[in-house]
């Protein structure tokens, strides 16, 4: 019963997350029809939505999430391709989130000269950064299909769950440490930019309270709200990453609970691609509503 509940929850994650990322993609990309070019933050969010959707759809296509749906066991080629694109999407999500937090931090840097200079170069830098995220993820995981094999068939139990699970073997400890170090670099950048934004926003809030400046302009309010949204996104990503690492350690340590922990690992892996578009859409809609209410209130 617990397994079925986890499987249904996984399916809900895939459906809700895919729809949310499609809406997030359309919401940002549709503005190219009215504007001359996309804003840098919209380019980042489009890349994040695409990577999220790829990761969710790969789970729906590659894994046996629901027992009562008749399916054939995955082939070795399918396992290799699915695992490769899963790692590429995962790496792009982490890199795009890092770029997003870094971009938001730079936009909050005080000083008109910094804003003007960054406004001139930011579209090119952001586009190059998003492209680099995909390229880095592809090159960083190009060797992984060599270590992935198809499900190990069992002669004793043809319906065993092991017949559906792709296996990974032969990856050296040094290679795992190198891959983990890449994650640590991205997480460290996200942590540094997030802490810096929190300090900057706290000082800004104290300064505004000190001079009793009640009438803030819409630009400052929008930048502050955007920074809060990015902070929520980064905290969500880091928290889920830590929980996922703990689940992987439990999966390795407790052999008798490996099937159960595998579903938990998959659930945590799908949580950020599902939560992030919903968070962005909710915060964006709430921000537009609050700005509209403020403008109506001032006109009265």
From TrEMBL:
Name under which the protein is recorded: Vomeronasal type-1 receptor
Localization, UniProt: Cell membrane
A single GO molecular function term of this UniProt record: pheromone binding
Ranges annotated as spanning the membrane: 41-63, 125-144, 184-201, 229-254, 260-282
Domain G-protein coupled receptors family 1 profile, first and last residues per copy: 20-280
PROSITE patterns: G_PROTEIN_RECEP_F1_2
Organism: Mus musculus
Keyword entries, A-Z: Cell membrane, G-protein coupled receptor, Membrane, Pheromone response, Receptor, Signal, Transducer, Transmembrane, Transmembrane helix
A Gene Ontology biological process term: sensory perception of chemical stimulus
